[in-house]
Specification:
The chain contains 24 helices and eleven strands. It has 740 residues and is α+β, with helices and mostly antiparallel strands. Among the domains are: 148 residues, no CATH class; 69 residues; 151 residues, 2-Layer Sandwich (Heat Shock Protein 90), CATH 3.30.565.10. The strands form three sheets. It has a five-stranded mixed sheet with strand order 6-8-9-11-10. A hairpin with a 2-residue loop joins strand 10 and strand 11. The longest helix is centred in the last third of the chain and has 55 residues. The two termini are 90 Å apart.
């Protein structure tokens, strides 16, 4: 297995070396091929040497002034005098600068009791002040200084010019030139001129490797301007503006010492290497392409690579891919230079460069293939799109984006943190600047004060934050401590206020939970009591019916009791079942446009006899016109029936009952008011609970579910039902949306 793995690795290495060599050749053709598809005398390399020759020709042939002539030609303008005079400011500022310059030196000499040094410093100071004062009085005094400066520049120019002489002498062996000044007629040439022979015959293009005529369409006249040598103001003054015509050429036959001949031969060698390199690279690509199936990736290598590579975030993968690509291109340049400039004779560098390029090409291929697998081929590929989104969420860029987004969820705190960090950064930067240049101490002082204030703010926020953390720890441990102080309008103050609200919510939730547990216990007790009472009667009288000598009258009485208690038990079970359905919302409403006035009158008519027997005085107040609502008539009738039934059961005898219906802001509002016969000392909200009745009314025939069922029905209609108690006055208010 190991031998097979090594064999596949060797095959893969061979193919990648061939492909890398071929791609490097293509890269060389694309980047530098333009230079090698033409002759040396048309390359940028020769053009640079040609321009340099023109510069040296201008220096030593065209500019025929001597040093003495150049110094005699020096002129000084009024503008130069004024610029030299005020170069360092006006007279007062220059004198003050000189006095400050010598002030500390004189003070130190006085402190050292060195009278001679004091006299020397004062003499120097006074001499400079006198010289500066003379500058502002006498133009000739300034002119002399400027002339001296320019003479020094002329001396420097002629001294520096000599460093180019050896180059000019070498170029004269390579170039021939014949140039004529169109104005003066003066000729500059290194040819032996025969007046009988035209210059065109002396410079025959058949014998020349390069010819440049002046003027020409591309260059015009030769003006003798510098291109590559050091250029300064004195050189500009010494250079005459000329219009030269003629020819400059490079003969094919050159001496062995000619630099142009040497560079041309080196270029031809590189050109030959380039052609061999380009041709062999094409063969390498073709061979590598045909061998691609011969060398395949081992599945084991592929699995190991993917297992390692998948843990890298996708943005880091892209950066690594780009870095690998750049290194690969650098390796291509290295291989290119090694083959073209060092030749095939020194193969060590070339082989090392090729192996390096092949290694990075392999890494580039593996990375590119893995990244390509992550990219969705099309927008319709939902699974691949989802995988790419998950991969993107693992990236560092996404994490940084999330961190910045979270940091600026509250812009004020994010901005404050950025400002604090900026203060800290600039404090550090200006600390270094103060060490280098003390002048920045003033700016550093302002930043230091700002940093102190920033530190105070940071400490205050930190203390406030620690209090919040301590309070939340106590809250998590179940200890309800005092509320947090809410200071200002900062995000921490808002957080403290929200924690206080949550703390009160937890307290209320605990109270509600305790109440719910209590009501649950009461529910079980009440349900057990209310169901056991009729069931006990049924069982008892059923046993009595089994008595053999039971009389007919007693038998009928027992049967009547059993029948009544059975119906009572059925009512309780039906109400319990309906209340459960209402609470779960598992009720289908059949809504219609119903007249509430008519529905209320029908409900009252059903209880007309019971109302008369109870001795209650009803006061009904309804609009003359119909009041419509979109409701389930059967369910709403049940609400009216339950409320009227409660009134009949729990109203004090011979009292008035008020039932009203009116329109209030596009709502139909019904009100039921009665005086209770039992004292209501419970919480009003608990009257909605199942099986909840006043303590004094446990012996009534009600199930205790009437109000709960009514409330659930009204809620299903998106209405509102409220109960209020004022002493013995019991009031129920129902509000439903009115429709026309």
């Amino acid at each position: 297995m190991a031998i097979k793995s090594k064999s596949s690795f060797v095959k893969l290495a061979i193919v990648f070396i061939l492909l890398t060599y071929g791609l490097c050749g293509v890269f060389t053709v694309l980047t530098t091929g333009g230079e090698y598809f033409k002759s040396f005398y048309k390359t940028e390399e020769f053009r640079g040497e040609y321009d340099y020759f023109l510069d040296t020709l201008t220096l030593f042939e065209l500019n025929d002034r001597t040093k003495a002539d150049a110094k005699k030609a020096i002129t000084v303008t009024k503008e130069e005098i004024e610029e030299h005079r005020t170069r360092y400011g006006d007279l007062a500022s220059q004198i003050a600068s000189i006095e400050n310059q010598y002030k500390y030196q004189i003070e130190e000499a006085i402190a050292a009791d060195n009278e001679k040094a004091v006299e020397v410093y004062k003499a120097e100071r006074d001499a400079k002040i006198a010289d500066i004062t003379e500058n502002f009085k006498n133009d000739d005094h300034v002119r002399e200084k400027i002339v001296k400066e320019k003479e020094e520049q002329v001396d420097a120019y002629f001294e520096n010019r000599e460093q180019y002489r050896s180059s000019f002498l070498q170029y004269q062996e390579s170039f021939i030139y014949y140039l004529k000044d169109t104005q003066s007629g003066k000729v500059f040439t290194n040819l032996e001129v025969d007046k009988q022979q035209p210059i065109e015959e002396m410079v025959s293009e058949k014998e020349m490797a390069f010819v440049q005529y002046y003027p020409s369409r591309e260059t015009g006249y030769f003006t003798g301007q510098y291109m590559n040598v050091e250029y300064n103001e004195i050189m500009s003054e010494l250079t005459k503006e000329r219009m030269l015509e003629g020819v400059i050429a490079v003969p094919k036959a050159q001496p062995a010492s000619s630099p142009i001949k040497r560079w041309a031969e080196e270029f031809q060698e590189r050109q030959l290497r380039f052609n061999l390199f380009a041709g062999s690279s094409v063969l390498a690509i073709i061979l590598g392409w045909f061998l691609r199936k011969w060398a395949r990736f081992s599945e084991d290598w592929d699995a190991k690579w993917e297992r390692f590579y998948r843990y890298i975030p996708i943005d880091v993968k892209v950066v690594l891919l780009g870095g690998t690509g750049i290194i690969t291109i650098l390796c291509f340049f290295l291989l290119n230079d090694s083959l073209l400039y060092f030749g095939f004779h020194d193969m060590v560098d070339s082989i090392v460069a090729l192996l390096m390029a092949s290694f990075f090409m392999l890494a580039l291929f593996l990375q590119g293939r893995s990244i390509w697998k992550l990219l969705p081929v099309s927008l319709q590929d939902t699974q691949q799109m989802e995988n790419f989104k998950q991969e993107w969420k693992r990236s560092w860029l996404y994490r940084i984006y999330r961190m910045l987004k979270d940091a600026f969820l509250n812009r004020s705190i994010g901005t404050q943190m950025i400002l604090l960090l900026m203060v800290v950064f600039f404090l550090g930067a200006f600390t270094v600047l103060v060490v280098v240049e003390p002048i920045f101490l003033l700016v550093y002082g302002f930043l230091f004060i700002a940093g102190v204030f920033a530190l105070i703010i940071l400490l205050r926020y930190t203390g406030y934050f620690n209090k919040i953390v301590q309070n939340t720890d106590e809250l998590a441990a179940g200890r309800m401590g005092p509320d947090l102080p809410v200071k200002g309008k900062s995000v921490l103050a808002k957080l403290a206020g929200n924690i206080n609200i949550l703390k009160h919510g937890v307290k209320q939730s605990k109270n509600e939970q305790a109440k719910s547990e209590r009501l649950k216990t009461e529910l079980i007790t009440n349900v057990s009591h209310d169901l056991r009472t009729p069931l006990t009667s049924i069982i008892t009288y059923s046993e009595l019916l089994k008595t053999p000598d039971l009389g007919e009258a007693d038998r009928k009485a027992y049967i009547e009791i059993i029948d009544r208690k059975s119906k009572r038990l059925k009512v309780l079970i039906d109400d319990l079942f309906e209340a459960s359905k209402m609470a779960s919302g598992n009720v289908e409403l059949v809504k219609e446009r119903i007249d509430l006035v008519q529905l209320l009158q029908q409900a009252l008519a059903e209880h007309n006899e019971a109302i008369e027997e109870a001795g209650l005085q009803l006061r009904i107040a309804t609009p003359e016109k119909a009041v419509y609502a979109l409701v389930d008539g059967q369910k709403l009738w049940r609400v009216f029936d339950n409320l009227i039934g409660n009134i009949l059961k729990y109203s004090l005898e011979h009292t008035r009952v008020y039932i009203t219906l009116k329109l209030v802001e596009n709502q139909a509002v019904l009100t039921f008011k009665n005086v209770t016969k039992y004292e209501l000392n419970e919480n009003i909200d608990e009257l909605y609970e199942r099986f909840k009745r006043g303590d004094e009314s446990r012996n009534t025939e009600g199930s205790g579910l009437g109000l709960a069922i009514a409330k659930s029905i009204i809620d299903l209609h998106q209405g509102q039902m409220d109960i209020s108690v004022d002493g013995d006055l019991f009031k129920v208010t129902i509000a439903l949306e009115n429709v026309q």
